[in-house]
Amino acid sequence: MPIPDIRTPLPGPNAQRLIARDKTAVSPSYTRAYPFVMARGEGAVVEDVDGNRFLDCAAGIAVNSTGHSHPAVVKAIVEQAGKFLHMSGTDFYYEDQVELAEQFGQLVPIDGPVRSFFSNSGAEANEAAIKMARYHSKRPYIIAFLGGFHGRTMGALAMTASKAVQRRGFAPLMPGVYHAPYANCYRCPLGLKPDSCAADCLNFLEDELLVQLVSPDEVAGVMVEPIQGEGGYVVPPPQFHERLRALTKQHGILLIADEVQSGMGRSGKMFAIEHFGVQPDIVSVAKGIASGMPLGITASRADVMDWPPGAHASTFGGNPVSCAAALATIKLLRETLVKNAAEVGGHLMEGLKALADRHPLIGDVRGRGLMIGIELVRDRQTKERAVEERNAVVQAVFRRGLLVLGAGRNALRLSPPLVLTKEQADTAVRILDEAIGEVEGK
Ligand SMILES: Cc1ncc(COP(=O)(O)O)c(C=O)c1O
Fold first, then answer.
1. In terms of CB atoms within 10 Å, which end of the chain has fewer, N or C?
2. Does residue 6 lie within any of the structural domains?
3. Is 90 exceeded by the pLDDT of residue 198?
4. Do 319 and 395 reside in the same domain of the chain?
């Protein structure tokens, strides 16, 4: 069966009915870019309630790592659901939670013994990371980066500096957070080139923030996305993470890698920080870890996780069904899918870079593995952001049967399930080619 396969005008009649009900009953804070109403999915293909079939390069915001309803993950979920659904791992024991902590400890790029705290989402995983860093260091301050996204609960939101609308109306946020510039080399604020700059964008953090605003011996942790996600799939140069690691080590500051979006194979390595050869002290994950079941993990060096019983916990965190899904997910990622993300991601990247030769609207194509951003600009010289054009491309690919999301102010993001095939990658490139051409008025 050909994919995509669009049979009705979009949205179709069934989708229209559901969207009308949603309009009055569901929170208006959700940002639906286009009217896709899910009925079922398999691998990287999703079907809507009117029988239209789409190629999914959004994966529920970079979540369905093993594809939609992978049989091995579904089997693990069903088996566990038949035994017990919940027993709160904070008050009782069950094997899958221990097994997952052991496996995750082996997997995560942290030196020496590792312990894991379980929650339900990315924001919660980052809340745990801040609390852990403060508790262990007995220091109050946290540093994060402009363009970063760490979640929407009050602590995580205080570190998020992605879009003002996400913070507007919610102040006061958690105090004690400072932000420094991230290494966005396409828009280097210093006008430098990544191969010769020595991550000079960190000068602000080192020479101004830590000198004029906050004393380094009062900073508990620096939280950083190895590759920025919501900020526009921004890949910093290696020296950015190297220098940040050296600086945090020098001052006894904990380095917290937020791998919620970039982790679990998405970047073509199990964790994106592995591309930079740096070992953080704390790593948070969620999204892809359990293929779509809610689960967050905050892992740290064992000596950092020195909080006592009662200091932090979550009723649902590390739910047994989610743990079973995570164990099945990790098995699939290890066996084939991380490798597939690297290979098919490379192929997709080549195809997209070739598109840039034909479409002046494409300013930059960047990413690692199947975490790829395409930044659209009105003029390659001035790099004026093509915000409306980006939004129009998102709509135009949807009409043609491809699901993508925006990221940052003017980038498209491709974050497909890691089961994507080269043929599906070629389909995505073909549809983007047509859609960008349409928006360029060609
Ligand atoms: C890097 C990063 N951290 C944290 C979060 C928050 O995760 P959640 O929406 O599961 O709370 C996100 C979500 O997009 C993210 O991309």
1. N
2. no
3. no
4. no
Residues 355 and 329 in one domain: no
- Ligand 1 pocket, residues with Cβ under 6 angstroms: 61, 121-123, 126, 149-151, 225, 229-230, 258, 260-261, 286
Same domain? 149 vs 198: yes
Centre of ligand 1 to C-alpha 333, Å, is 20
The count of domains in the chain is 2
Residue among 261, 266, 273 to mutate when testing ligand 1 (max atoms within 8 A of CB): 261
**CATH number of the domain encompassing residue 103:** 3.40.640.10
Q: Which residues constitute the domain of residue 56?
A: 13-69+336-440
pLDDT tens track for 324-383? 999 999 999 999 999 999 999 999 999 999 999 999 999 999 999 999 999 999 999 999
Can you read off the two tokens belonging to residue 273?
Answer: 């920080």
The structure's pTM equals: 0.98
Do 370 and 392 lie in one domain? The reply is: yes
Percentage, residues of the chain above pLDDT 90: 97
265 torsion bin: left (phi>0), alpha (psi -120 to 50), beta (else): left
**Residue 335, C-beta contacts closer than 8 angstroms, at least 6 positions apart:** none
Give CA–CA dist 268/342, Å, rounded: 4
